[in-house]
Write a structure and sequence with these properties.
Elements (H helix, E strand, L loop, with lengths): L5 E11 L4 H10 L3 E12 L9 E3 L1 H14 L5 E4 L5 H14 L5 E4 L4 E2 L2 E2 L7 H9 L4 E2 L3 H7 L11 H12 L5 E10 L2 E8 L4 E8 L8 H14 L4 H21 L14 H8 L3
Parallel strand pairs: 1-2, 1-4, 4-5, 5-8, 8-9
Antiparallel strand pairs: 2-3, 6-7, 9-10, 10-11
C-alpha cells in the first residue's frame, strides 16, 4: 500500500451548517487522505441564512499551533485554505506556507470572500488585493467569478457568459502567479453550470458542466473545492479532477433537492460520498 498522504485544511468551522471544515474534513478524509485541520474561527452556525450566530476568532491560536507542528516535523502533501476573516489571517497563512509548503506540497487557495457580485460583509474594500497576494503563492486557485473580478479590479459581469470573457478572465488570473486556475460559476446558458480551468504552463483551457438545479444551495463552493483536492491527491490530472468535482457537487445538490432539505443547512454531501469514492476508484 502506498504511503497515506496528509492534507492541511485551514478554514473556519460552523457547528451547524455544512460548509468550510465540516465539509472539507469528511470529504478529503473519505478520499483516503489523512486530513489535519486548523480552524480560523468557530461559529454556532454558518452566516448564510442565519442570524444571531456566535463567532469566536481563533487568530491568536494559529501561530502556537504552527509552532507545535513544526516541533513535530510535520509534512503536508497539500495545504487547502478557504474563508479567511481578516488581513492578519491572510498574513498568517502566508507564514504557514513559509513553514510547511515544500517543493512537493500542493497549495490550493479558495479566495472565499464574495459571491453574486458582492463582497461578504465585514471585509474592507481593500481585502481582495490582500487575498490576491496569497493567491500569488498558491499552486492552484479556485475563485468564483465575483472573486476573480475583485482580485483583478474589474467590474463584475452577470452571466450567461461568453467563452471569450471566461478565457480572458482565466488568463488574467493566471498572471497572478498560481500554476493552475479553476474558475467556478461558469455558464453559457441557463441549462448548464460548471467550471473552467487553465494550466498556465501549457495554456490549455478546459471546461466541465452539469445540468443546473433550480435554487440556491449554501456550501457548494466548499464541497467543490474539497472534492477537487481529494481528486488531485488521488493523482487525477486537473481536467479529470475538475470534472469529478463538478459532477459530485451536482449530485449533492440533486440529492438535497429530492429530500426537500432546507437549503441553508447545506447540501447532503454525505449521501453522495459513495459516488465520489467510485469516481476516485477507492474501494
Amino acid at each position: 500500500m502506498n504511503k497515506q498522504k496528509r492534507a492541511l485544511a485551514v478554514h473556519d468551522i460552523s457547528c451547524v451548517g455544512r460548509c468550510s471544515l465540516t465539509v472539507a474534513l469528511p470529504i478529503i478524509s473519505a478520499a483516503g487522505v489523512d486530513t489535519s485541520i486548523l480552524p480560523t474561527a468557530v461559529l454556532s452556525t454558518h452566516t448564510g441564512g442565519f442570524t444571531g450566530y456566535t463567532y469566536r476568532d481563533l487568530t491568536e491560536d494559529i501561530l502556537p499551533i504552527a509552532d507545535h507542528w513544526e516541533s513535530l516535523g510535520l509534512h503536508f502533501d497539500a495545504i487547502y485554505t478557504g474563508y479567511l476573516g481578516s488581513f492578519e489571517q491572510v498574513r498568517l497563512v502566508r507564514e504557514l506556507f513559509r513553514r510547511f509548503k515544500k517543493k512537493d506540497t500542493l497549495a490550493l487557495v479558495d479566495p472565499a470572500m464574495a459571491d453574486n457580485g458582492v463582497l461578504y460583509g465585514g471585509f474592507a474594500p481593500e481585502f481582495p488585493l490582500e487575498m490576491k497576494t496569497l493567491c500569488a503563492e498558491a499552486d492552484i486557485i479556485v475563485p468564483n467569478i465575483t472573486e476573480a473580478a475583485l482580485m483583478l479590479e474589474e467590474p463584475y459581469q452577470e452571466g450567461p457568459y461568453t467563452r471569450e470573457y471566461i478565457e480572458g478572465l482565466l488568463r488574467r488570473l493566471g498572471e497572478i502567479g498560481a500554476r493552475q486556475v479553476v474558475l467556478t460559476g461558469v455558464y453559457f446558458d441557463e441549462k448548464r453550470l460548471g467550471a473552467a480551468s487553465l494550466d498556465t504552463a501549457s495554456g490549455e483551457i478546459r471546461y466541465a458542466f452539469q445540468d443546473t438545479v433550480d435554487g440556491y444551495f449554501h456550501g457548494t463552493g466548499d464541497v467543490f473545492g474539497s472534492a477537487l483536492l481529494a481528486a488531485l491527491l488521488n493523482d487525477k490530472p486537473l481536467e479529470e479532477a475538475m470534472g469529478i468535482a463538478v459532477d459530485y457537487t451536482q449530485r449533492c445538490i440533486v440529492l438535497t433537492a429530492e429530500a426537500s432539505q432546507e437549503a441553508r443547512y447545506g447540501v447532503c454531501f454525505e449521501r453522495a460520498l459513495p459516488y465520489l469514492m467510485e469516481r476516485l476508484g477507492i474501494r
